[in-house]
Amino acid sequence: MKLSIIKILIICSAVAILPGCAKEPSFNYKDGTVGISKIIFFPSVQIKGDRLIIIDQGTAFADPGVDAKLNGQDVAVTTTGSVDVATPGVYDLLYSASSPEGYSASDWRTVVVMSTAAEIATNDFSGTYLRTGFTTSTWTKTGRGVYAVDNPGGAGVGAGFVVVVVNYDDNKIAIPHQQAFDPSINGLNTISSNSEVYNAGSAPVTYSWALTAGGYGTQSRTFIKQ
User: Fold this and answer.
1) Helix (H) or strand (E) holding 120
2) What is the pLDDT of residue 201?
3) How remote is the C-alpha of 196 from its chain's centroid?
4) How many domains does the chain have?
5) H/E element holding 169?
6) pLDDT tens figures, 135-188
7) Which of 67, 148, 178, 187 has an alpha carbon within 20 to 30 A of 213's alpha carbon?
8) How many Å apart are CA 118 and CA 116, to the nearest integer?
9) Does one domain contain both 129 and 157?
């Protein structure tokens, strides 16, 4: 009986040891895979230089370009949009790159071409403007045709949200696509304007625009100079 028990213990010990002697799995996977899964790399795109560039009409525009990578290597970039340096206006450029699997990344830049007309230098839209039923927005001229505008939405929570506004031709104005610190969200907000009208020819002086910005409606907003 004791011999049988000893045999059983020996057999059990051997069985217990077997898993420890099993062959270790191989991690020498084929390049680009982990086991049966394919490794996917996502592209990254980051502009070089300034996000908002302002140049005078007729001045050559040298695009600073972007840094685009895929798995640590440079990757081809597609640029959508162009800049006509002969025509005053606001021009958006979109840079994008893709992986072979179709995953993409992008970044953007805005270029403002300023008219060289003398009136752009003499225009002064500085002042306080009231959005009827809401609150005021303040314009401060910082350069030829360039203004720092506080509270562009005329909203009760917009104080301290200061954006760059351009008077790029005649009485034409715009908030170029840009990022600015917005205290109402305690972080960067991306903003631009559309449907802009500045009426300087009769009293009262007014302007209106619609905003594209996080947390703001898309309705037209009208302001009256105080």
Assistant:
1) helix 118-122
2) 87
3) 22
4) 2
5) strand 162-169
6) 999 999 999 999 999 999 999 999 999 999 999 999 999 999 999 999 999 999
7) 67
8) 6
9) yes
* 25, part of any domain: no
Q: Can you tell me the distance from the alpha carbon of 96 to that of 80, in angstroms, rounded to the nearest whole number?
A: 8
Answer whether 95's CB lies under 8 Å from 110's CB: no
Return the closest-CA partner of residue 52 out of 6, 83, 9: 83
Among 61, 80, 114, the domain boundary falls at: 114
Contact 43, 167 (CB under 8 A): no
Q: Which of 134, 141, 136 is nearest to 219 (CA)?
A: 134
- pLDDT tens column, 8-62: 333 334 334 334 445 555 556 655 555 456 688 999 999 999 999 999 999 999 9
Q: Are 118 and 186 in contact (CB under 8 A)?
A: no
